[in-house]
């Protein structure tokens, strides 16, 4: 089940942005049309979450032209508040289309969903569920697209097996889209600083 949501536009009021999603403080960047953003949120300490994160990273590396990643890790109370925000806002349309949607009652870590951009600027949001549902999706939709046999075998084995307790500590490195966003922000900041310096020189 897919839900479509228009991206917030410049000039939109803070109140309408808040209504648009309790998670807007963790807004995901606009993903290029044709790509899929794998989003995972969960506890900082959780072997199921650690396995999901590991899978997402490997998938993105194996198919970089198709997938990007976005992650959010937190402590239990904060994560559950974040999850409730997703269920009440971003996932709302999917739940309205399917009253029995499995993610509607999801309460555990992690939560995995996909985001895609449409030509009209809207985004498709596809709630998957926990690690188990993510693994099912990987086996059905990803592994056959991977040409590198070593990567395909590794991803398949991880998707078919249960996580071990050595994976309990989640790797908190940012997703690929978060890294790109941070780099763009730094570049813009440096650009502004240079502009200010040039303006000061002109004033002198």
UniProtKB/TrEMBL annotation:
Question: Where does this protein have compositionally biased stretches of type Low complexity?
Answer: 175-185
Q: Which domain of life is it from?
A: Eukaryota
- UniProt name for this protein: Uncharacterized protein
User: Locations of Basic and acidic residues compositional bias?
Assistant: 186-204
Start and end residues of each stretch annotated as Disordered: 174-204
């Amino acid at each position: 089940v897919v839900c479509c949501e228009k991206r917030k536009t410049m000039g939109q009021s803070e109140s309408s942005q808040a209504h648009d999603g309790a998670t807007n403080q963790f807004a995901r960047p606009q993903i290029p049309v044709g790509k899929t953003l794998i989003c995972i949120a969960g506890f900082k300490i959780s072997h199921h979450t650690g396995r999901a994160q590991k899978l997402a990273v490997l998938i993105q590396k194996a198919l970089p032209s198709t997938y990007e990643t976005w992650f959010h890790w937190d402590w239990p109370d904060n994560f559950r508040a974040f999850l409730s925000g997703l269920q009440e806002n971003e996932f709302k349309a999917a739940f309205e289309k399917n009253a029995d949607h499995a993610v509607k009652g999801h309460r555990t870590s992690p939560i995995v969903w996909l985001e895609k951009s449409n030509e009209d600027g809207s985004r498709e949001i596809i709630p998957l569920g926990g690690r188990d549902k993510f693994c099912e999706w990987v086996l059905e939709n990803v592994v056959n697209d991977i040409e590198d046999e070593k990567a395909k075998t590794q991803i398949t084995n991880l998707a078919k097996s249960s996580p071990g307790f050595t994976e309990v500590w989640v790797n908190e490195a940012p997703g690929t889209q978060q890294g790109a966003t941070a780099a763009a922000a730094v570049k813009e900041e440096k650009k502004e600083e240079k502009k200010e310096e040039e303006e000061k020189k002109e004033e002198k």
